[in-house]
Amino acid sequence: MMDQTNSKEPLAYYVGLDIGGTKCAVVLGDDDFNIYEKVFFETKVARGPTVIINEFKAHIHRIFEKYDRDKLLKIGISCGGPLNSKKGLIKSPPNLPGWDDIPIVDILEKEFGVGVALQNDANACALAEWMMGAGVGTENMVFLTFGTGMGAGLILNGKIYSGTNDLGGEVGHIRLADDGPIGFGKAGSFEGFCSGGGIARLAQSIVTHKLKNNIAVGFCPVAEDIEAITAKSVFTSALQGDRVALEIVKISAAYLGKALAILIDTLNPECFVIGSIYARNEALLKPLVYEVLEIEAIPEALDVCRILPAKLGDKIGDYAALGVAMQ
């Protein structure tokens, strides 16, 4: 599927490639994040990396049958980790079986004769929010995914920070409690308390305990419904005034506040931009988080830090890889 959304001819083009476990995308844009073409196709990982990379090549060549190929300045790639951004390698992401040490940057540079940059998806989303979303104008910004998992993209001193081997920003692995829901393979982790899967597991544990002790749970009255609990159902019920659901949300918010305090004290950022679950439930979460921050964070650091919902929403995928190309 192609979607031409802008007809103005720019001075230069950028191509963004988004590699996901279920679908891939090619986006053609310019310095102002105008989108000229979008192409989506299913990943179908069983086809293997060579077939999928060749499909990327074919779509790019097809796009430049309509646009001036000489104006292609750079290609950016957003992909789930692990990867090596410096060497341009995709290194066995769990959602891309068979993608083992794939030198995708070298492959595309040889094919198109332009620079190619690779970043993990959290960093790519951070770049997009920093360049045209909620973090515009900041020098030090932390982007938190707060979706299926909890990862971070760090913009420090006006540059993306990836770490020594692309593990900068793996904040979901921080242990916040000795025990708790499992996230990132660790009980009591930031991801365990603050992610879609983690909140569901936290809720299932609390509801199980209450029902066994004959405590009524309005949003899940019988044990047979426990497995169907999701983060979405918890937040929906909390907003409707369900006492147990609100108790669960308060626990997640408290640990979000503790983790933000650690990051504020360590990095002294100007702002956090938080996506997905936080962005959809900011009115409920923000006051609960600030109750903790006012106790835990260095006051002078908290005073200069804003906590903002991600601005780009569902459009972030269109812009993330373009942001990588523009860096």
Features:
327 residues; Nucleotidyltransferase, domain 5; 2 domains; 5-stranded mixed beta sheet; 11 helices; 14 strands; 20% strand; disordered N terminus
Distance between the termini: 27 Å
What CATH architecture label of the largest domain applies? 2-Layer Sandwich
Strand content: 15-25%
| Low-confidence blocks of residues | 1-6
Gyration radius, rounded: 21 Å
The largest pleated sheet is described as:
5 strands, mixed
> What class would the helix/strand composition place it in?
alpha/beta
In short:
Helix content is 39%, strand content 20%. It has helices at residues 48-63, 104-112, 121-132, 190-193, 196-212, 231-239, 243-267, 276-280, 282-296, 299-303, 316-326; strands at 13-19, 23-29, 35-42, 72-79, 83-84, 89-90, 115-120, 141-144, 152-156, 159-161, 182-183, 186-187, 271-274, 306-309.
Structure description:
There is one protein chain. The chain is an alpha/beta fold and 327 residues long. The chain folds into two domains: 13-133 and 315-326, Nucleotidyltransferase, domain 5 (2-Layer Sandwich); 141-310, Nucleotidyltransferase, domain 5, CATH 3.30.420. Helices cover 39% and strands 20% of the residues. The chain is built from eleven helices and 14 strands. The chain has helices at 48-63, 104-112, 121-132, 190-193, 196-212, 231-239, 243-267, 276-280, 282-296, 299-303, 316-326, and strands spanning 13-19, 23-29, 35-42, 72-79, 83-84, 89-90, 115-120, 141-144, 152-156, 159-161, 182-183, 186-187, 271-274, 306-309. Strand 5 (83-84) and strand 6 (89-90) form a beta hairpin. Helix 7 (243-267) packs across helix 9. The longest helix has 25 residues, at 243-267. It is globular and about 70 Å long. The relative contact order is 0.14.
